[in-house]
Design goal:
The complex is a heterodimer of chains A (293) and B (225). Chain A has 293 residues and is α/β, with parallel strands linked by helices. In chain A, 38% of the residues lie in helices and 24% in strands. Helices cover 86% and strands 0% of the residues of chain B. Chain B has 8 helices and no strands. Classes of the chains: A alpha/beta (293), B mainly alpha (225).
Chain lengths: 293, 225
Amino acid sequence: MTAKADVSMSPPLLGVSSSEDEPATRVAGETRATGRTATTKDESIKIRVEELRASYGDAEVLKGITLPIQSHKVTAIIGPSGCGKSTFIRCLNRMHEVTPGARAAGRVLLDGLDINREDVDPVRVRRRVGMVFQKPNPFPTMSIRDNVLAGLRLNGLRIKNPDALVERALRHVALWDEVKDVLSRAGTSLSGGQQQRLCIARTLALEPEVVLMDEPCSALDPVATAHVEELIHELRESYTIVIVTHNMQQAARVADFTAFFYMGLLVEYDLTDVIFTRPKERRTEDYITGRFG
Amino acid sequence: MRHTDREYEQELQQLRDAVLLMGARVEQMTSGALSAFERLDLELAKATIALDEEIDRLEMDIDERCVRVLARRQPVASDLRFITTTLKIVTDLERVGDLAVNLCERVLELDAETLKPVRVSLVQMGDVVSDMLHEALDAFIQADAARAERVILRDNVVDATYAKIFPELLGYMIQDTKSVAVAQKLQSIAKYLERMADHATNLGEMVVYMVRGEDKRHANKLGRS
């Protein structure tokens, strides 16, 4: 993986630079190169999760998850409430540790780099592994334009050509035509579906390699959901996507691979086609057919 | 385990019952057609033909139920396999019903008990076909893949019998040209029975898919397991 030079977002985003940026890229590149030789043999795996355990206080939420996240594919995590799926993706960019009392053990190897290593900066990890949340959360006091740039500014990055970057990011999420004349309006003036696409644009503006989505459509109507799902299909070309969803039909529609979690354990992981037509595990079968509990 | 949604559970159960009913009717037609042939019972042949209308109605009813479940429940995994299997099974069952009608029509045209040995072979062939059909339907209802596989294996027996019947009939036709008309009808009946066995085999293959998710069709020709 040679950084992100070949992705479609790149040209305007290459206009982004900061005093931090060059070393960050270089360090990450070196670590990745070393890590890859050392641990990751399969280039198709973007993130290798090994024996991941996570807890909040005394409550262990993940009890040893080992799972590959395939590069440039959509991986869906499904399972009943409390199965640990949201905690799982929050461990993929070190968001989990932000919660007071939260702990994690085991390895999360991003291109071979153990993101939990002491010398790894969580902020840099989050730039490489971005996240989109359940409820669209544009910054309420910011315009649409500033929302797109917010992540870059918060990271202290200098933006060479902000207008081009905003346009490219909004085009990428198919929002440009809808908002190009109202860029100075508040982000919160948009519809729910548009707000969610704006949040995705804000995540993409940081040029991540992996995009984590935690129930990204649960607050959206079916049309807005269809837009976001269409977007997920397109994003797969440039990004690796992990999506947590309660909506099994959504997992069936958008994901290449599906993992079923239950009570902090990975019950089954396979091609989505296999999971939804002939799962191997009884618990998967019972859950997806609605025979659970 | 039952569905959490009882209404959904009930819809699937009703669908299963409808297939069971259609299967029972098709078996009734097959055995009626075979008895009519064996005893040259013209009344039974006519009564059997009359049953076909119900089969056609059941086929449409089951298709509609399947489409409704697909649209409203978006079934997955075993439920999806059950629905797609059911959609195909009813087509095969309906075809078996049509073949039973064809058989009865030939019975109505047969007027004398000539070519007795061939008739005996055909009755025996018919018994195997009836049993295959019965077993395939039971395997479907009980979701028993091993039973379905045994049905698939028996198709060869029927094919072998069928292969012997034509030369035998040809012998009679060469010996006595007056037997040609009857021999031709018996040949048709042999063909109907052979086709029925093929449909029973299809049912068996679909049951294996429904239960295990394995596609057994065309295994030899396409080089798949």
